[in-house]
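Bug #77: duplicate submission created two jobs. Keeping one. Sequence:
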Amino acid sequence: MTYTVSPIGFVRSCFKEKFAIPRQPQLAPAARGVLELVAPFDQGDAVQGLEQVSHVWLLFVFHQALEDKPRLKVRPPRLGGNKSMGVFATRATHRPNGIGQSVVKLDKVEANRLWISGIDLLDGTPILDIKPYVPYADIITDASNGMASAAPALIPVVWADTALQQAHAQALRLQEPLVALIEQCLAQDPRPAYQTPAPEREYGAQFWDLDVRWHYPEPGLICVLEVIPKQ
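Kept job's structure:
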């Protein structure tokens, strides 16, 4: 038996590429976006009452990770990217039906869009459903997960003087907490865990319409080198 689902909206996100997106929601509170609803859900009736809700669950499609052949085992980044686990024991993007879920902060409700933050969603992500977060039901105080018992350890992020000046200027233009966004995302160390980068190797990712470049001047330290508009 097969089922057909259609998006109820699409996310316009600060994340324009997969690299450097936090691996779970709420790890980067400064990560913001807009969920733009499509007809017939963009008239206001469908979101009536959501103004009473602080957070929502989003069910979505990993639209850039869809595969024809299901994977039974995956290599989750949390385990270093080189250890296999059953797909249902992980939140890896390679899902049998490409479906993901995230709990995000609901900052503002409009008739045809929701303003959200703490996101881990790629720009253009199709949203299948929205459900209100219900604290008394969704918080399980004695829950456990032996593979991911705590948030990943953060590493310090420092700035080259020029890069920090660039970031502040672009933050004013975008009206976004850009410095916090970059620091919150990079502190989680987006590179594959099995890599040991040389100090001269530079990494890059796009946030909003900006190219951000950084390197690892020493183990366990990130230095932001440049924040410039994407060419």
